[in-house]
């Protein structure tokens, strides 16, 4: 177990670099901030009609590359809950919340913090604190997740 | 065409990074948030790793134009506000509950099984309802 931890950190760091590289391509190439919630949300509420194809192409990449990578890794388990009420409540909160805040982990977190955006930093502090409190409440006190 | 290819490349790198970093594994995300349990610091390495190339990219934008033309995004507004805070708290609560945020939700659709599709459908519903929620909020308590 102890030996497995640094490997996870290295994969985290390597994967993180790829995420940042993706954001750099979107910014330097297309002049756009790589925010997953904004890219998806613009398709859902119709506000992203003017660059529909760009959004779909981006999401196709996000969806398809893991399809190619999946067979190369053994034991990929996402450990997602099978509690439907929790999944629906969580999805609704993430959907409404990210659109209200105009960003999520990629837009506010990665792209915002890296340009020292106050909004990005404040959003990140609040969603991490809320996430931590939620896990404490629902895991350790209520025992739901 | 160029714009779409670059978007595909960017999304592909993003998807690969999310997959390799373990951020589509909900137990790693919840492990990071679970400071009173078996705390997992992996997410900090992912964030740190992502911020470095992104910060270099931002530095590179000064005095230049995007490859496809147009302009780079305007400097961020220093304006905070109720919607930013309330939205982030709501997002954080959902993130903690399921261990998924929008990027990993898309990246994990092909291999995560039905729970990921349920979460994804609920997230899209939330995104569709968001403009209404925002309007309701603004009429009840004006943002500023």
How would you describe the overall organization of this protein?
The complex is a heterodimer of chains A (145) and B (144). Chain A is mainly alpha-helical and 145 residues long. Chain A has one domain. Chain A has helices at residues 4-30, 36-44, 52-69, 84-100, 105-113, 118-141. Chain B has one domain. Helix content of chain B is 67%, strand content 0%. Chain B has six helices and no strands. Chain B has helices at 2-21, 26-33, 42-60, 82-98, 102-107, 114-140. Classes of the chains: A mainly alpha (145), B mainly alpha (144). The interface between A and B is large, with 108 and 117 residues. Chain A: Its main location: membrane.
Short structural summary:
Chain A has 145 residues and is an all-alpha fold.
SSE blueprint:
The complex is a heterodimer of chains A (145) and B (144).
Chain A: H1 4-30, H2 36-44, H3 52-69, H4 84-100, H5 105-113, H6 118-141
Helix pairs in contact in A: 2-3, 5-6
Chain B: H1 2-21, H2 26-33, H3 42-60, H4 82-98, H5 102-107, H6 114-140
Transmembrane segments (chain A): 12-31, 52-72, 84-101, 122-142
Family (chain A): Belongs to the TsuA/YedE (TC 9.B.102) family.
Subcellular location (chain A): Cell inner membrane
Order of helices and strands of chain B: HHHHHH
Give the percentage of residues in beta strands of chain B: under 5%
Task: Quickly give the structural class of chain A.
Answer: mainly alpha
Question: What order do the SSEs of chain A take from the amino end to the carboxyl end, as H and E?
Answer: HHHHHH
Q: Tally the helices of chain A.
A: 6
Number of domains of chain A: 1
Residue stretches of chain A low in confidence (pLDDT < 50, at least 5 long) are none
N- and C-termini, Cα separation of chain A: 23 Å
- Beta strand count of chain A: 0
Q: Work out the oligomeric state of the chains in this entry.
A: heterodimer
The biggest sheet of chain B, with number of strands, parallel, antiparallel or mixed sense and barrel status, is: none
Q: Helix count of chain B?
A: 6
> What sort of overall outline of chain A do the alpha carbons produce when their principal axes are compared?
globular
Mind telling me the C-alpha Rg of chain A? 17 Å
As residue ranges, the low-confidence spans of chain B are: none
Number of strands of chain B: 0
* Separation of the first and last Cα atoms of chain B: 42 Å
Mean pLDDT reading of chain A: 95
| Largest Cβ-defined interface | A-B, 108 and 117 residues
Keywords (chain B): Membrane, Transmembrane, Transmembrane helix
Protein name (chain B): YeeE/YedE family protein
Pfam families (chain B): DUF6691 (PF20398)
Organism (chain B): Shimia sagamensis
């Amino acid at each position: 177990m102890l030996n497995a931890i640094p490997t996870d950190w290295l994969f985290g760091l390597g994967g993180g670099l790829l995420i940042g590289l993706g954001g750099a391509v979107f910014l330097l190439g297309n002049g756009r901030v790589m925010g997953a919630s904004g890219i998806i949300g613009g398709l859902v509420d119709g506000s992203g009609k003017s660059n529909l194809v760009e959004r779909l192409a981006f999401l196709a990449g996000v969806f398809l590359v893991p399809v190619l990578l999946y067979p190369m890794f053994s034991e990929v388990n996402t450990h997602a809950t099978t509690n439907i009420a929790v999944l629906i409540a969580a999805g609704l909160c993430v959907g409404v919340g990210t659109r209200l805040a105009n960003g999520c982990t990629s837009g506010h977190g990665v792209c915002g913090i890296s340009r020292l955006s106050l909004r990005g930093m404040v959003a990140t502090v609040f969603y991490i604190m809320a996430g931590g409190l939620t896990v404490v409440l629902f895991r350790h006190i209520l025992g739901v997740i | 065409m160029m714009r779409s290819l670059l978007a595909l490349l960017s999304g592909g790198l993003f998807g690969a990074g999310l997959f390799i970093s373990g951020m589509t594994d909900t137990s790693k995300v919840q492990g990071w948030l679970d400071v009173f349990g078996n705390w997992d610091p992996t997410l900090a390495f992912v964030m740190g790793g992502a911020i470095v190339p992104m910060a270099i990219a931002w530095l590179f934008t000064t005095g230049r134009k995007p490859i496809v033309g147009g302009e780079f995004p305007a400097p961020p507004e220093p304006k905070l506000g109720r919607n930013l805070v309330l939205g982030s708290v709501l997002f954080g609560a959902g993130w903690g509950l399921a261990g998924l945020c929008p990027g990993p939700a898309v990246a994990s659709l092909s291999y995560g099984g039905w729970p990921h599709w349920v979460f994804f459908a609920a997230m899209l519903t939330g995104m569709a309802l968001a403009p209404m929620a925002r309007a309701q909020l603004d009429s009840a308590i004006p943002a500023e």
